[in-house]
Specification:
It comes from Actinacidiphila polyblastidii. The chain is of the alpha/beta class and 234 residues long. It has a single domain (7-228), classed as NAD(P)-binding Rossmann-like Domain (Rossmann fold, 3-Layer(aba) Sandwich), CATH 3.40.50.720. The protein is built from seven helices and seven strands.
Length: 234
């Protein structure tokens, strides 16, 4: 699918990777880009169409779909990182992670799938993570939610194939955004991640590993858990 001339909607389009997607799509010749956010007043990308959307609120999603009936490219980017740990993380935080990344992505995809179909099939990019494939106790809620979102992405790819909707999963390691500003680790530039995502999507790739971290983790999957988790094979 071509970016030039498309009508795109980016969830969480007011900051971080989402805002970078909005800018890159406009720069790539998209005819219109809806920057969806819970508070559309926080959308700052010039030329974007602010749109009120809370992915955890089905009524908000329904209203957004009614307003944006011309979309042919959906970027499911909205996300959170609660920091909920494995053994003592609050269950309410675990629920928030799943309600945002899994049920939120599902609700938005269900609402816009008929629109994409009517508009020729179009495409969906789901912003996932290398943590879709690798988990740590310290960020167990986020990892589990992203893993479930990866499974959902695969189901969407199969389920929407008959209407010619392309579904691409984006995986990457740490990216320099507000979401992980508290972590002192090497981070990729958001523009580099989005550039790789859109190039892979335009090429028809079902999955994009946008940095070395994602590439290495994906490669290790075929080698078993011992390759992913040091010490388990000892």
């Amino acid at each position: 699918m071509k970016i030039n001339g498309s009508v795109a909607l980016v969830t969480g389009g007011n900051r971080g990777i989402g805002a970078t997607f909005v800018q890159a799509l406009l720069d790539g010749g998209a005819a219109k880009v809806y920057a969806a956010a819970r508070d559309p007043r926080k959308v700052t990308v010039p030329g974007a169409e602010p749109l009120r959307l809370d992915v955890t609120d089905p009524e908000s999603v329904r209203a957004a779909a009614e307003q944006a009936g011309d979309v042919d490219l959906l970027v499911n980017n909205a996300g959170i990182s609660s920091g909920a740990t494995l053994l003592d993380g609050a269950l309410d935080d675990w629920r928030r992670e799943f309600e945002t990344h899994v049920l939120g992505t599902l609700t938005v995809s269900r609402a816009f799938a008929p629109i994409l179909g009517r508009n020729g099939g179009g495409g969906i990019i789901n912003v996932l993570s290398a943590l879709s494939w690798f988990s740590t106790p310290e960020s167990a809620a986020y990892c589990a939610a992203k893993s479930a979102e990866w499974s959902l992405t695969n189901a969407l790819r199969v389920g929407l194939a008959s209407q010619q909707t392309q579904v691409t999963a984006l995986h990457m390691g740490y990216v320099d955004t507000d979401l992980i500003s508290h972590l002192d680790v090497p981070k990729s530039a958001p523009a580099d991640i989005v550039r790789a995502a859109l190039a892979g999507f335009a090429a028809g790739d079902p999955e994009v590993t946008a940095d070395d971290t994602a590439t290495q983790v994906k490669s290790a999957l075929s080698q078993g858990v011992e390759a992913l988790y040091a010490g388990l094979g000892a």
